[in-house]
Structure formats: structure tokens, C-alpha cells
Amino acid sequence: MPTTSSPIHAPQIKICGTTSIQDAQLAEEAGADFLGIIIEHAPSPRNVSREQARLIAASISIPVVAVTVNKSSEGLLRLHDELHPHAIQLHGDETPQLVRELVRHGLRVWVAVSGERAAVLSRAQEMREAGAETLVIDARLTTAQGVIYGGSGHLSDWEAARLLVEAGARINLAGGLSPDNVREAIATVQPHIVDVASGIEAAKGVKNRDKVLSFVRAAQKV
């Protein structure tokens, strides 16, 4: 059941971790509002090169979000100049200072926030003050092989996300969403955007057509 009293509105939809032109065009056909492409993050099974990202972005008309992990400001500015994405999504351990620098250069910046609730709320406030346009509430895991920054299929903290929505933050809810739970997530959090990768895949990095269509239908039917 919804935990907020305001009317529920259908959020925008971001299909993330796209690795092929075929899957990008499927996302657009299904009705997604944004396409997320993970660029130059080798540990991710959904990683693509800049050239692959350029080809994917050129195949669609919906806005592209360039998802990056722990890149330098110089690298991010070059990436933005080359690809001209709608926004740069910082999905690692980036600082508020980096956000300020990118915003000063005119970039839209989305920032992933995860961890214990107190840390999520604190980092979210810092990033909002630094100028982040959107906060991406996601789940990260620490394994023997290192940190998995997203795309693990684990649920994020919906309560933290809800509190941030109530505080006026623009929230992109990620982490473990699927066609089966996205309507509950929307009713609980009322995010501005819902974000899915692993929950609509046939294999890591490969989208399942039926799941993509089902997710979009479910997200739009609130």
C-alpha cells in the first residue's frame, strides 16, 4: 500500500545497462523515457566502450544517460563532449566537489546514493547542495572481488527514497526492480523515475523483450 498521502503519478522510466542497438531500440519502442549506458566500467557485465555507446545512442531518439564509475572530471568532460548525453550519472564514490565542477560546466548530473539509511540521507543532502539534478537510489554490494556498484538485483532502501521524495528531491529509484514489484515500488516511494537493468534481462547485458514490455506497462499503470 502507498505510504504517502499525495496522488500517485506514473514516473518516467529508465532502461539501464543497455549494450546493443537492438536492445536500445526495444527500450524506445516499449516507451522508455531514458536509456542508460554504462561506459568504460570493465567490472560490469553491461560495460560498453565509448564507440559502442556512440553507436547505440545514435540509433534512438530518447535521451541517453551516460553511467560512469569513479572517473576524473577531465574524463567526464571529454566523455560529455564526445557523446552529448542528456546527463552524466555518477555511480561510484564521487565527491560533491566533482559534482560542483561538472555543474559549473553546464552538465546535468545524476548521482547514485546507496548504503545504510543514515549514510544515504547524508550523502543525498550533500549531493543536492552540490547541484545534482537527480539522486539515483540504488543498492551496492561488497564482495571478495570488490564493490558491485549496481545491477546486482538487490533491492535499494525504499524508505530512504520515500523520505527524500518527501524532502523535495528528484529521485530515480533503482535496485532490484522488476515487472513484478515496480507498481509496489511506485506506490510506496512515488519516485520521479524508475530504473531497471537486471530485472528485465535474459542474460547479463541482454534484455528480454517480454520483460521490458511488461515492466513499462506495469510502471505506466498506476
List keywords for this structure.
13 strands; 222 residues; eight-stranded parallel beta barrel; alpha/beta; two-stranded antiparallel sheet; TIM Barrel; disordered N terminus; 8 helices
Brief overview, please?
With 222 residues, this protein is α/β, with parallel strands linked by helices. The chain has eight helices and 13 strands.
CATH class: Alpha Beta
The tally of beta strands, per DSSP, is 13
| Number of H/I helices | 8
Order of helices and strands: EHEEHEHEHEHEEEHEHEEEH
| Broad structural category | alpha/beta
Instruction: Enumerate the spans where pLDDT stays under 50 for 5 or more consecutive residues.
Output: 1-5
CATH superfamily membership: Aldolase class I
CATH topological fold name: TIM Barrel
Identify the CATH architecture.
Alpha-Beta Barrel
Main sheet makeup: 8 strands, parallel, barrel
- Beta-strand portion reads 15-25%
Radius of gyration: 16 Å
Global geometry: globular
Query: First CA to last CA: what distance?
Result: 12 Å
Into how many domains do the coordinates divide?
Answer: 1
Structure description:
With 222 residues, the protein is of the alpha/beta class. The protein has one domain: TIM Barrel (Alpha-Beta Barrel). The N terminus is likely disordered. Helix 1 runs parallel beside helix 8, helix 4 runs parallel beside helix 5 and helix 5 runs parallel beside helix 6. The chain contains 8 helices and 13 strands. Helix content is 37%, strand content 22%. Strands 1-2-4-5-6-7-10-11 form an 8-stranded parallel beta barrel, surrounded by 8 helices. The protein has a two-stranded antiparallel sheet with strand order 8-9. Strand 1, helix 1 and strand 2 form a beta-alpha-beta unit. The protein is globular, with a radius of gyration of 16 Å.
